[in-house]
Amino acid sequence: MADAPHLSIGEVLSLLQDEFPDVTISKIRFLESQGLIDPERTPSGYRKFYEADIDRLRWILTQQREHFLPLKVIKDRLEAANGGVPVGDGDDPAREPAVVAAATRAPATVSASMPAGEAPDQPVPIWMADLVREPVAAAPVASSSRARRGTKVVPIDPLDQGPTSVSLTAAELAVAAGIDEPTLRELERYGLIQGRPMGTDTFYDGDALVIAQRSATFLQHGIEARHLRMFKVSAEREAGFLEQVVMPLLKQRNPAAREQAVALLGELAGLGQELRAALLRSNLREHLHPG
Question: In order of start, what are the domains of the chain with their CATH numbers?
Answer without folding.
Answer: 9-133 (1.10.1660), 145-288 (1.10.1660.10)
